[in-house]
Amino acid sequence: MIHPLVDRHTHLEGALAPAWVRSEAERRRLALPGPLETLWSGGSVPFEGFIEAFLFGAALLDSREAVREAVRAVVQRTHACGGSGFDLWASPHFLVAHRGQITLDAFWRGVEEGLAEAAVQGVRGCVVVDAVNHFGPKHGHSVLDLVLPELPPFVRGFSTGGLEGSPFRDWAPVFDRARDAGLRVAAHAGENGPGSNVREAVLEGGVARIVHGIRADDATLDLLADRGVPVDICPTSNRALAADVAPHPLPRMLAAGVRCALGTDDPGVAPCDLRTEAAAARSMGLDATALETLRRNGAEDAWCLA
Ligand SMILES: [Zn+2]
After folding, report:
1. Portion of the chain with pLDDT greater than 70, in percent
2. Is 71 in contact with 125 (CB distance < 8 Å)?
C-alpha cells in the first residue's frame, strides 16, 4: 500500500515562495535582508540571521490576500512533490496581537481560502496554532484567549515553538486548557534546548507530539517509542539551526522505534521540499524500507488527515 505523502511540519510564516517575497519587497520598496539572500542561495547564517530572515516574510503577512498566498505556497510545494497533506503551524497571536499587522478575522479568512484551494487540488491541510515558548506560559494563555472564542474547524492543534526558554512543566496548565478545548498538543523540543526537554514535554507537559527532538538521549528515544509519540524531523532546518547535532540522529531514532516523519519547517527561508528531505534522509544511510516507514508514519500520525 502506498501511503499519502504528508508534509508533517511547516510554518505559514516561513513558507512564502521566494519569488513572491522578492516581488512584494520591490513593490513595498523594502531591501531584502542579507541573511535571507544567503539562505536562499544555500548558505548558512547564525541563528539571529535566520530569525531576521523569517521575520521579514512574517511582516509581509498583513492582509487576507498575503496569508492566502502563504498557504498557496505550502500547497504548491506539497503538490509538486506528489504530496496530499500538510500540518501547518501558524502564529496568529504574533501577527494579530504582538505586531498588530492584521486582524484575526482577515488572518483566518486568508487561511480558509488557501485551504479551500488546496482541497480543490486534492491536498488536505490543518492548522496548529503556535505559541512562543520563551515568552512563557502567560503568553500561552494569551494565545488561547485570542483563538479559542471563535476557533475555526481547520485548527486541530496547539504547540510551542521558538527558543526553549521556559520549562515545559510550567506550560502544563496551558496545554491542559488547549486539550480541554479539543486541541491536540505538540511542542518544539530538543531543538535549541537540551534533550531533557523532550522527556519533560512528554511526561510533565503531556504533549502528544514532538517537533525535532533531535537532542533526545537513548532513554528518551525509548520513552517516545514506548508511548508511540510522533516526532517531526526536518533535516534542512536542522542543518541550518542545529548544525552541532551531527551526525543527524534520524537513523538512531528510527532504529529505536520512534515514529518519525519528515517535514519542511521553513522552506521559504531555508529552501527545501519533501523531495530534498527524503534525499537528506537517504544520504544518512537510510534504505527504501526506512523511507517507506517515514512516509507511513507521516500519513498515519498526520493531524490533517485525521
Ligand atoms: Zn518548526
Report:
1. 100
2. yes
Domain boundaries, the chain: 6-300
Distance 186 CA to ligand 1 centre (A): 11
CA of 22 to the centre of ligand 1 (A): 23
Calculate how far, in angstroms, residue 91's C-alpha sits from the geometric centre of ligand 1. 11
- Bond prior to 247 in cis (omega within 30° of 0): yes
Other C-beta atoms closer than 10 Å to the C-beta of 252 total 15
pTM of the model: 0.97
At 102-119, the pLDDT tens digits run 999 999 999 999 999 999
Extract the C-alpha cell encoding 246: 551531527
Q: How far is the CA of 188 from the centre of ligand 1 (A)?
A: 7
CATH (one of 3.20.20.140, 3.30.420.140, 3.40.50.20, 3.30.750.24) for 6-300: 3.20.20.140
Q: CB-based burial of residue 1 (10 Å sphere; 0-12 exposed, 13-18 middle, 19+ buried)?
A: exposed
Q: What is the pLDDT of residues 268-289, one digit of tens each?
A: 999 999 999 999 999 999 999 9
